[in-house]
Amino acid sequence: NMCVNTEYIIGEVPGIRVGDSFDYKAEMSVVGLHFALMSGVDYLKTRRGRMLATSIVASEGTDYNNVFMGDQLLYCGIGKDQTSLEKGNRALMCSMKQNSPVRVTRGYDLGNGKTSFVYQGLYVVETYWVEERAAGKRVFRFKLRRKVLGGGESSREASLQI
Amino acid sequence: NMCVNTEYIIGEVPGIRVGDSFDYKAEMSVVGLHFALMSGVDYLKTRRGRMLATSIVASEGTDYNNVFMGDQLLYCGIGKDQTSLEKGNRALMCSMKQNSPVRVTRGYDLGNGKTSFVYQGLYVVETYWVEERAAGKRVFRFKLRRKVLGGGESSREASLQI
DNA sequence: TAGACGTAGA
DNA sequence: TCTACGTCTA
């Protein structure tokens, strides 16, 4: 890949601050904020074989229906067939159970096909449920809440979770 | 777009030499060698409304069956429905009629999903035909030949064609 | 709005 | 091999 920083990490990425914006997913990949060029969820596997989400991108448009409200984010799950918790969706569930922070980047639709991605900071998955949609489609919905800053949780503690 | 050089031009791109290689289509786009990130054919419309191909990328793999043999290239047409000459295919046909040079870049499959793109120089479309494939699929096939270097055709003459 | 010789990762 | 919250042009 074209990444400089190639390490999947939980929590803040050194050098990246809340409010930092990017024009392309590829830029986010290069700096290690979000590696996947297309997928909306990055995740890793711990030594114990546990999956943990590292980063999500919540974009506008299509029928994702991601909702930012205050310090909350209602994030639509990933994938065509969301009948079972797999991949990114499973990782988000595991992050919830572990109270593991997830980086959130918001994708703004600037019109004329342009997008701007703005890093929102660390969020924690509080709960999730299943939504029934038209044509019998099911999607997972995750509720995340912005992590309180200065909560005394050091990056060392975060790394110990792994 | 993320391009620095944003001008579609016929012929050589200043600063790009035969043999120059690129890891990503995005790099080729930035330098103005080939703008399209996905499509294999770049083209422009002249003031007279004539289409002319500026650049093609001939990749290995899938069922493109592009064949480099000596100074010749057998290039598979573009698109799902190749029953009529449209877009890039039409542009290549027009380039043939106008004897207008087309930049050719070869895409090497390095395995493990990696690709290397190497600029091959200017080619001229000599002829094209239709190939029948399985399942009644039709594809256009273009025969290009490497342009003889030092042929005395100046870039000014090339621009006059437009 | 849809199509296109892309990329990385599971 | 396939999927994936991309990105550009027509």
From TrEMBL, chains A, B:
Main location class: nucleus
Subcellular location: Chromosome, Centromere; Nucleus
Record-annotated YDG domain positions: 11-146
GO CC, one annotated term: chromosome, centromeric region
Keywords linked to the UniProt accession: Nucleus
Protein name: YDG domain-containing protein
Organism: Eruca vesicaria subsp. sativa (Garden rocket)
